[in-house]
Amino acid sequence: MIKVGIVGGTGYTGVELLRLLAVHPDVQLTAITSRKEDGLPVADMFPSLRGVVDLAFSSPDKADLTQCDVVFFATPHGVAMAQAPALLAAGVKVIDLAADFRLKDQATFEKWYKIPHTAPELIEEAVYGLPELNREDIKGARLIANPGCYPTTMQLGFVPLLKAGLVDAGSLIADCKSGVSGAGRKAEIGTLFSEASDNFKAYGVHGHRHTPETSAQLARYTDQKVGLIFTPHLVPMIRGMHATLYARLTRDIDDAALQALFEDTYKDSQFVDVMPFGSHPETRSTRGSNMLRLALHRPEGGNTVVILVVQDNLVKGASGQAVQCMNIMFGLDEATGLKQVALLP
Ligand SMILES: NC(=O)C1=CN([C@@H]2O[C@H](COP(=O)(O)OP(=O)(O)OC[C@H]3O[C@@H](n4cnc5c(N)ncnc54)[C@H](OP(=O)(O)O)[C@@H]3O)[C@@H](O)[C@H]2O)C=CC1
Ligand SMILES: CC(=O)N[C@@H](CCC(=O)OP(=O)(O)O)C(=O)O
């Protein structure tokens, strides 16, 4: 059994990890931390876990995380970088759901996250945890930088086109929408029911930290200079993310060949569903599951490809993806414990 620790077990990605890992056949939940709820049985806070998780939260300074085989950090940016060096030295693998190790350029990280990096020596070693594009590197990794939720949709949509040299990498556009759980469980005015429900707005239009993360990753798949305009929106739903991606074709290709390119790219990726050409994927077709679904369009047969991508921000966009990485790191089938079908309605 893989002994698992979770730092930040009271947040949305933390409890999502608990939901997935509590029934994972190869996992033994060993330590779950919370600074505020030290000593409280996990199931007292989350009755959905009654009879499934019998651990109590412990404060991060009391929890002995070195007894774990792997520790997930479901915490704000800056927490994993403080603890990862000691855990790695003790032989514990680390999967960070935050951004501490996603950007290879320290100055870019510090500019966007506005905190100093305290473990720069680990940045190079960290492996970006997007299995569909990086599976081989994840196999041997000790430290995983789990991707952001929006960047997962943008990369899985754009990369096949960039790799094939079919589009202008300098004029990519991503118009994305997220459910409110994407902002986490902490109290904030913008996510109050009376602010976020029956409302719809863009945010971060002048610049969002997921732009440098996505651009840096996309640049690995093209020789062209990447230019990405990314606009996130908050939609009045709890879970779910929808990305509408636009790319300009620079070479002639017919619809069937475009579709075949995506089907071929993801033929060994059980969590990417390439839907029939012209489909309209819905967020609810991924709710609670680790599936990402996408569909291609070519409005009026012109030279713009529109890629529609949906996922559950808390599963494929965060905790499910992290468990997928753990499975790969420990030599398990990638889908172990991740076969949930989406909830409908
Ligand atoms: N929500 C989403 O859809 C996604 C989130 N992410 C990233 O995952 C991470 C977690 O997000 P989310 O679950 O939404 O956040 P939440 O705000 O819901 O939860 C944060 C958790 O971290 C704990 N925590 C906060 N500060 C510290 C600290 N200094 N040391 C130890 N524990 C701490 C909190 O518990 P306590 O205060 O009791 O210790 C809480 O359990 C973030 O970095 C986020 O950017 C990534 C992809 C998608
Ligand atoms: C709706 C909402 O607020 N979403 C978050 C992104 C969540 C995520 O992926 O976060 P990290 O990259 O910070 O880990 C945001 O835009 O800040």
UniProtKB/TrEMBL annotation:
<keyword id="KW-0521">NADP</keyword>
<dbReference type="GO" id="GO:0003942">
    <property type="term" value="F:N-acetyl-gamma-glutamyl-phosphate reductase activity"/>
</dbReference>
<dbReference type="InterPro" id="IPR050085">
    <property type="entry name" value="AGPR"/>
</dbReference>
<feature type="active site">
    <location>
        <position position="149"/>
    </location>
</feature>
<dbReference type="InterPro" id="IPR058924">
    <property type="entry name" value="AGPR_dimerisation_dom"/>
</dbReference>
<comment type="similarity">
    <text>Belongs to the NAGSA dehydrogenase family. Type 1 subfamily.</text>
</comment>
<dbReference type="InterPro" id="IPR000706">
    <property type="entry name" value="AGPR_type-1"/>
</dbReference>
<comment type="pathway">
    <text>Amino-acid biosynthesis; L-arginine biosynthesis; N(2)-acetyl-L-ornithine from L-glutamate: step 3/4.</text>
</comment>
<dbReference type="Pfam" id="PF22698">
    <property type="entry name" value="Semialdhyde_dhC_1"/>
</dbReference>
<feature type="domain" description="Semialdehyde dehydrogenase NAD-binding">
    <location>
        <begin position="3"/>
        <end position="141"/>
    </location>
</feature>
<protein>
    <recommendedName>
        <fullName>N-acetyl-gamma-glutamyl-phosphate reductase</fullName>
        <ecNumber>1.2.1.38</ecNumber>
    </recommendedName>
</protein>
<comment type="function">
    <text>Catalyzes the NADPH-dependent reduction of N-acetyl-5-glutamyl phosphate to yield N-acetyl-L-glutamate 5-semialdehyde.</text>
</comment>
<keyword id="KW-0560">Oxidoreductase</keyword>
<dbReference type="InterPro" id="IPR023013">
    <property type="entry name" value="AGPR_AS"/>
</dbReference>
<keyword id="KW-0963">Cytoplasm</keyword>
<dbReference type="Pfam" id="PF01118">
    <property type="entry name" value="Semialdhyde_dh"/>
</dbReference>
<dbReference type="InterPro" id="IPR036291">
    <property type="entry name" value="NAD(P)-bd_dom_sf"/>
</dbReference>
<dbReference type="InterPro" id="IPR000534">
    <property type="entry name" value="Semialdehyde_DH_NAD-bd"/>
</dbReference>
<keyword id="KW-0055">Arginine biosynthesis</keyword>
<keyword id="KW-0028">Amino-acid biosynthesis</keyword>
